[in-house]
Amino acid sequence: MLRTFLSESERARQELDIQHGVHLDSPKIYRALIDYFDVSELPNEVLFKELTKDQIVKIVLGYDFERRSLITTVILDESILPEEVPQYFEKAIIKFKGQQWEIHNSDHDFPSSPHAHDYQNNYRLHLGTGELYYKRKIISRISKKDLLRLRKRIIEQVPNIQLPLLLV
């Protein structure tokens, strides 16, 4: 399946480049497919879709790449994750006493608009309630103090951002 996906994806990339004038690298195409199928928690699910070159081209041509553009990355001095929440590491990005949260422009998917992503642990954070999600399930809630601190840091970096209504 992997070999087939890579082959079809490369053929799609070439067609997008040559016939449609859309110049994308393979990781951007893969990211578009992950978003299209809403499988960010299990990105390898894209492989099981058994997509053809034509299907990939059609999806990518209809995909809004601007919708997921990064607004900012917030790095905290210390983690805001509650102690009972497990942390998963697929790859290590070392930050002393810290954590990295990413907020994307017009990120209208689950759970709030916008919301924060901790890609290292595959968590999403509702920026209005502080609810912490893993695979679309609430697993915990960060403290109000930490949520307010995070929101303040986001606003400092992106003053015109519209955060969700604070509900804590």
How would you summarize the topology of this molecule?
Elements: H1 2-20, H2 26-37, H3 53-61, E1 70-76, E2 99-104, E3 115-118, E4 123-126, E5 131-134, E6 137-141, H4 144-157
Antiparallel strand pairs: 1-2, 2-3, 3-4, 4-5, 5-6
Query: What is the radius of gyration computed over CA atoms, rounded to a whole number of angstroms?
Result: 18 Å
State the separation between the terminal residues, measured CA to CA.
46 Å
Query: Helix content range of the residues, please?
Result: 25-40%
Mean pLDDT equals: 82
The number of strands is 6
Shape, principal axes of CA atoms: elongated
- Major sheet: 6 strands, antiparallel
Question: What's the domain count?
Answer: 2
Number of helices: 4
Spell the H/E element sequence: HHHEEEEEEH
What strand line-up does the widest sheet have?
1-2-3-4-5-6
Which structural class do you get from the secondary structure elements?
Answer: alpha+beta
Fraction in beta strands: 15-25%
**Low-pLDDT stretches:** 89-97
Any overview of this molecule?
About 5% of the residues have low confidence. Helix 1 crosses helix 3. With 168 residues, this protein is an alpha+beta fold. It is built from four helices and six strands, in the order H-H-H-E-E-E-E-E-E-H. The chain has two domains: 62 residues, no CATH class; 91 residues, no CATH class. The chain has a six-stranded antiparallel β-sheet, with helices on one face. It starts with a helix and ends in an 11-residue tail after the last helix. Strand 3 and strand 4 form a beta hairpin.
